[in-house]
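Progress report, Aim 2. The chain analyzed during this reporting quarter is listed below.
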Amino acid sequence: MRFEVKFSGHKNIRSNHKKTIEITKDSKLTPKGDCIIGVNASSSCLDLPIPLKKKLQDPKSKITFEIQVEQLKFIVKGRGHQNLILTHPEDIVIRKSNFVCPRTLAVNCDKASDLLPRKMVNLLKNPKSQGTFAIIVE
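Predicted C-alpha cells for the chain:
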C-alpha cells in the first residue's frame, strides 16, 4: 500500500532535529520547528485512509518513507505501533523513539531530519519548492 502527501518548502526549514521528521498542513513555520521539512501538506494523520491507518497500527508493519524533492530522494524505514492514534488534524511526525501521540505516524525509524541531505534542505528553503512524502507499508 502506497499513499503520497504533497508538501512545499519554507524559508525557515532547518531540518536538524536528531529524533523526528515532520510535515505539516500549516503554512507558517518559525525557526524553532527544526524537525519540520515541509509545510502546506496535502494530508495530516487525521486525513489518512482507514485501511492505511489499520496497517500503521500493526506493530509487525514495516514502513518505508520516500521523501522526494526534485530529483533527490531520501529513504527512511520505520515500524507500525498498536497504540498509534493518527488523529492530528495538521501534522505527520515519524520518530526514532517509541513515543506515540496523535501526530505520530511511525516509530523506531532509522533516520531523523538531521540526516536529510543538505542539498535537499537547501531546495526546501525555497517556498516555491515542492516535495512528496510517500508512505509505503509492506
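Residues 50-56 form the longest helix (7 residues). Residues 92 and 103 are 5 Å apart (CA to CA). These observations will guide the mutagenesis work planned for the next reporting period.
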